[in-house]
Amino acid sequence: MTDQEQHARFRLDEVIHAPVRFSIVAALAHVEEADFAAVRDAVQVSDSVLSKQVTLLERAGYVEVKKGYVGKRPRTWLKLTPVGEAAFNGHLQALRAIAGQ
Amino acid sequence: MNTIPSDSVDIPLPGDVTAAQARAALSQASSAQLVTPRDLRLLTGFVAGVGVIVGAILYLSWATLSVGNQGGFAISMSLYAAALALLLVIKSRARAIPRGFRRTYNIGFAVTMTAYCTGILWIFGHQSPWPSASVVIPMSIVTAVPCLIAAALVHRTARA
């Protein structure tokens, strides 16, 4: 085991690393913001699972949740924060370092 | 029975990630796509539509007021407001906003509105005589073009 391999593992983000949260963050990384239902359909989880994972990401400061209305219909929008984007990019760099070994 | 997968079992600790798992995760990250073709149609339609209606209202303002048709001008402005409201409804139906959309739209809209304001000031500063349609129509087209270009850029960037 080399020093480089150890360093890459240490750089993996524990919040983002979980599969569903990783999928959520990966999806949000490509958009400015997205509707809750769109993220749910893309990640293929239930409303409750997505809500729970988004709450964890929001507490970590990685995702911003915005609630509003379109007409009388409530809408929830999700957006990756700059902190979340930096954490995701750092996580990807660590994965690339691991994948390249 | 609810068979939606949970996030609570067999999750490798960060230190347990293999190279193959890392490559799979990277592949998933690069292929993640929230913006659908429908979202793209709605958003590009919105941006293009804004350009078209601003260009149109420049022309209609000249077409009505140059012949003293105040009623026609009022109807034109009402139609413009209704068209804008419809475009905002169309935009609100998009479920994901691609990266760069807001910046591209804001720049296109700002240039379109600058052209509109310039056109309005020039047209109404030259009322004796009023400029002809051969001047106003190209001005209206020039007014619409920045938003049309922005719409094309939104479409191309999101599909890239």
UniProtKB/TrEMBL annotation, chain A:
Residues 20-98 form the Winged helix DNA-binding domain. InterPro entries: WH-like_DNA-bd_sf, WH_DNA-bd_dom, WH_DNA-bd_sf. PANTHER family: BSL7504 PROTEIN. This is Transcriptional regulator. It comes from Candidatus Phosphoribacter hodrii.
TrEMBL record, chain B:
Keywords: Membrane, Transmembrane, Transmembrane helix. The chain crosses the membrane at residues 40-60, 72-92, 104-124, 130-154. It comes from the Bacteria. This is Uncharacterized protein.
